[in-house]
UniProtKB/TrEMBL annotation:
MF (Gene Ontology): phenylpyruvate tautomerase activity
Pfam families: MIF
SUPFAM superfamilies: Tautomerase/MIF
Domain of life the protein comes from: Eukaryota
Cellular-component GO terms for this entry: extracellular space
Family: Belongs to the MIF family.
InterPro entries noted in UniProt: Macrophage_inhib_fac, Tautomerase/MIF_sf
Name of the protein described by the UniProt record: Macrophage migration inhibitory factor homolog
């Protein structure tokens, strides 16, 4: 049950967020090896953020998953999500952090219970 939370200081007004959500969902599903039906992506814009002392376009992400993460996959995910943010929101790859959390099923709530 991968969950990708993305926050950026870029305004999402007038942005085709459906395309971003769709691309991020399929990317996470493909690279982690989980069905798209179980991938959640949250995208928040216009969040006050600074990186390196400036408020130029920047973003932060966290990806939690029950398995499927490892150093090689994380590197591919980081590159792919950074590319989406750069092409769709003009956030430079150098101004994006992505934190990975590989968690146990008992730490993931769903459908009124846990895995």
């Amino acid at each position: 049950m991968p969950c990708l939370n993305l926050s950026t200081n870029v305004s999402l007004e007038g942005v085709d967020t459906s395309t971003i959500l769709s691309e991020a969902t399929s990317t996470v599903a493909k690279l982690i090896g989980k069905p798209e039906a179980y991938v959640m992506v949250v995208l928040k814009g216009s969040i006050p953020m600074a990186f390196g002392g400036t408020e130029q376009p920047t973003a932060h992400g966290e990806l939690a998953s029950i398995g499927g993460l490892n150093p090689d996959i994380n590197k591919k995910l980081s590159a792919a999500i950074a590319n989406i943010l750069e092409t769709k929101l003009s956030v430079p790859k150098s101004r994006f952090f992505l934190v990975f959390h590989d968690t146990k099923g008992s730490n993931f709530g769903w459908n009124g219970s846990t895995f």
